Amino acid sequence: MPSPSWSPHPTVLRVTAYAACLVVVGMALSMVLGVLGQLALVLFPVAVALFATRALSIPAGWLRARGWRPAPAAAVTLVSALLLVVGLVALIAPPMIDEFSHLGPTLDEGVTEIEDWLVEDSPWDLTHADVENAREDIVERARDALRHSEDQVTKGVQTVVTGLAGLLLATILTFFALKDGPRFVHWLDERTPKARRPHVRVVAQAAWAALGGYLRASALLGLLEAIVIGGTMAIMGAGLVIPVMILTFAAAFVPLVGATVAGVIAVLVTLAAGGLVPALVVAVVAVLVQQLDNDLLAPWIFGKNLELHPVVILLSIAAGTALFGFAGTVMAVPVTATVLTSIAALRSQVDLEGAADPDVGSPMVDVTTPGPAGAP
């Protein structure tokens, strides 16, 4: 029996205290993530509005610098952007729909060519009956999947309706952000305690710069992908090169998923126009481009513009996808960049203040205390 004065070793107590703190922090973080998941219907339009505001603030600011009032400048900028998007959709959608309408016979020809190669030239000992049985099995599995996907179709319709409502909300928020953004910043600055105003300003400027860096990096990555895939399609004699390049450029703003969707569309367009072999060439190039982008170019370009290590970017995308799905994939890099850049800027500001005043670290000293008379 231990003596009454017995107590655990200090190391055990320290580890237990840390473990208890980690449990509490983990539970609090889990609750926060749950609340954020419930508020996704509101938070995602807000995020889209922030992206749009950051991109459109340049032309809106240009108009305001030339004497335009805030409301007309915001309206003209937003309407011009919407007309541009509608024009691009009108440029892309009709020719692609027309091209895909001829895809059925091409797919049948491609399947027949693959079947002939498997039976006659492949190293496997297969007969037409074996290939036909495998084909029927695949078709039957696809039909079963369609029968069990009615709930998924309903959820997909609900998702589309929710997405349209979110886009409408994002458009309204973007207009007011372009119109009243400076006023809101001034209002927020006046209501921030004077001791914290320099810190809040530094954090806001760093977050705004990080968001701009993300948009620039995505645009550069999309441009590179569009040039490579579009050039390959042109060499293979496929049509709709320009629409596919535009779609590839736009898809680059959705990490991982966007590049995959754009690559599949490029392959289908090439298959409809040029046949199986050109489509396979485009598919190989698209896969290589995606691997090169995901493993090398994207981390390097994002890291260059956002001052983040490539490993941080890859881990943030993985964590965002695991926690919030598609929305997490889209928002992972900008949120991580904004948070880390803001923390680094705040730390630099605090260090700068500490270097200017050696007593700033003392809890008895108020950093907002004015200096001697006549001092700035």
What report would you give on this structure?
The structure is a single chain. The relative contact order is 0.08. The protein is globular, with a radius of gyration of 28 Å. It contains eleven helices and no strands. Helix 3 packs across helix 8 and helix 9 runs antiparallel to helix 10. The chain folds into two domains: 141 residues, no CATH class; 165 residues. The C terminus is likely disordered. By secondary structure, the protein is mostly helical. 83% of the residues lie in helices and 0% in strands.
Oligomer: single chain
Number of helices: 11
Give the SSE string: HHHHHHHHHHH
Query: pLDDT average, as an integer?
Result: 76
Q: How many strands in all?
A: 0
Strand residue content: under 5%
How many structural domains in the coordinates? 2
Low-confidence stretches: 360-376
**Approximate shape:** globular
Brief rundown of the structure:
By secondary structure, this protein is mainly alpha-helical.
Lay out the secondary structure.
Elements: H1 10-38, H2 40-65, H3 70-100, H4 103-120, H5 128-147, H6 150-190, H7 197-235, H8 241-251, H9 257-274, H10 276-306, H11 310-356
Helix pairs in contact: 2-3, 2-6, 3-6, 3-8, 4-9, 7-8, 7-9, 7-10, 7-11, 8-9, 9-10, 10-11
